[in-house]
Design a protein that fits this description.
Blueprint: E1 7-11, E2 14-21, E3 33-41, H1 43-54, E4 60-67, H2 70-81, E5 85-92, E6 98-104, E7 110-115, E8 136-142, E9 151-152, E10 156-157, H3 158-168, E11 172-177, H4 186-194, E12 199-203, H5 204-211, H6 224-236, E13 242-247, E14 250-254, E15 261-264, H7 279-292, H8 297-312, H9 324-333
Parallel strand pairs: 1-4, 1-8, 2-6, 4-5, 8-11, 11-12, 12-13
Antiparallel strand pairs: 2-3, 6-7, 9-10, 13-14, 14-15
Helix pairs in contact: 1-7, 3-4, 5-6, 7-8, 8-9
Domain Carbohydrate kinase PfkB: 29-320
Keywords: Kinase, Transferase
Organism: Leclercia adecarboxylata
């Protein structure tokens, strides 16, 4: 039997219009934009283009929906530029390509103004007859894919049905969520999907929304005990292989029946951080590379940290991405505890 190789990433496809601002303004006041650029955004594009820039030789495929407009042309051109298979990226005249206006302040903190556009229409037929020689199917982001977030009588949600179908076809399945504070849909939309997942990669804020536990302490540091408790809860809810909860200071990783562990990240000063757009997706890309190539959980998280660190050194989600040799050299030269 032929060994499966490659990563499919599916879901939100959008264009980020990224603006560097002098400061966040008070309501009703003006803030100066010092630099603007356009970049691809959303889980599948950020993950796939980061993996493509790693030059690891993995087959890569995108699945999604874009509008028949200039932003859609730009997304397809970027996929072509990085040799990502885009045959399953469809176009629609019923909605524009999804778009975010991203404001990045001098500390690197970003704020998003998002227009869902065509992503709202992405639904189960888009995933028929995917290439079954590929190994991992990654979906992002739940809570931003309106059609897939709809209820399903048998599986709970349409996204849970999709992930179950992918596992039945032999794919390893992976999921990412969107950060939305106070959204009551976290549990009802996420819980049904967990039992059909091999890998769940989320940040500490999303873990807090799911678990109800505070994941930052009074000094705004990571509340590691609560993060660990949230990971255990997610595994108990059905995740089959690995749960990773990441934050700027590090990541907690855990596998079923094993002790979890905290792996710190490489720290950057505020002056070094150019932008944090896409850093979580870069982390996810590094982690999925590790899972694909059967690295240990700790090794996979270190690769994820290295990809996220590189992403922070650029304004958009892609420009900072490094090739695999550079990432491996950095990891070897800068051992983490």
């Amino acid at each position: 039997m032929m060994e499966r190789r490659g990563i499919i990433a599916a879901g939100n496809m959008l264009v980020d219009h990224v603006h560097q601002i002098v400061q966040w303004p008070e309501r009703g006041w003006l803030a100066e934009i010092t630099h603007s650029e356009r970049a691809t955004g959303g889980a599948p594009l950020n993950v796939l283009l980061t993996l493509a820039k790693m030059r690891a030789g993995l087959p890569l495929q995108a699945v999604g929906l874009v509008g028949d407009d200039h932003d859609g042309d730009y997304i397809l051109a970027m996929l072509d530029q990085y040799h990502v298979n885009r045959q399953r990226v469809q176009r629609t005249t019923f909605a524009p390509t999804s778009m975010s206006q991203v404001m990045t302040d001098p500390s690197g903190q970003r704020t998003f103004f998002h227009s869902p556009g065509a992503n709202r229409l992405l639904d189960l037929p888009a995933f028929d007859r995917l290439d079954q020689s590929m190994k991992i199917f990654h979906l992002g982001y739940l809570l931003l894919l309106d059609s897939l977030d709809k209820p399903d009588d048998e599986y709970g949600t349409r996204s849970a049905r999709l992930l179950a179908q992918m596992r039945e076809l032999g794919f390893q399945t992976s999921l990412d969520l969107v950060s939305r504070k106070g959204d009551p849909r976290y549990q009802p939309l996420v819980l049904p999907a967990l039992r059909h997942l091999d890998y769940l990669v989320i940040n500490e804020l999303e873990a807090g929304e799911f678990s109800g536990l505070p994941t930052r302490d009074d000094q705004d540091g990571p509340a590691i005990a609560n993060i660990a408790a949230a990971a255990a809860e997610l595994l108990a809810a059905g995740v089959k292989a690995r749960v990773v909860i990441h934050c700027p200071e590090g990541a907690w990783g855990q596998e079923p029946g094993e002790e979890g562990g905290w792996i710190p990240s490489w720290r950057l000063s505020q002056e070094e951080i150019v932008g944090s757009v896409g850093a979580g997706d870069a982390f996810c890309a590094g982690f999925l590379y590790g899972c694909h190539d059967s690295l240990s959980l700790a090794e996979s998280i270190r690769m994820a940290h290295a990809c996220a660190r590189a992403s922070l050194l650029a304004a958009n989600a892609i420009d900072g991405a490094k090739n695999l040799a550079e990432l491996q050299h950095f990891i070897e030269e800068n051992p983490l505890a």
